[in-house]
Amino acid sequence: MSESETNNYFRAVVGLVLVGLGVLFFLAQFFDFGSVGFLWPFFVIIPGLLFFVGMVAGGPSAGRLAVPGSILLLPKQCPGDFIGRIINGCMQG
User: Fold this and answer.
1) Domain ranges (residues) in the chain
2) pTM across the whole model
3) Is residue 51 packed enough to be buried (19+ CB in 10 Å), middle (13-18) or exposed (0-12)?
């Protein structure tokens, strides 16, 4: 497989996964799947962690990946009124 074929294959797989998840969440609105409701945080946590993995793997030139990773992960560490907790010192313990 050439590089462009591999890239196209990867894009097709990612697209199919996203469409499948969309269908799953759409059907969950009409049928009781039970566990679908608590899965949504993983769609925020996993990309945030991947940004940090990319930052570590990429070295100093990939340090800018910490910004979107922090944006995605920080609200999970300080749930609730995010801005109010930052102002009042959520990170103090």
Assistant:
1) 1-33, 41-93
2) 0.52
3) buried
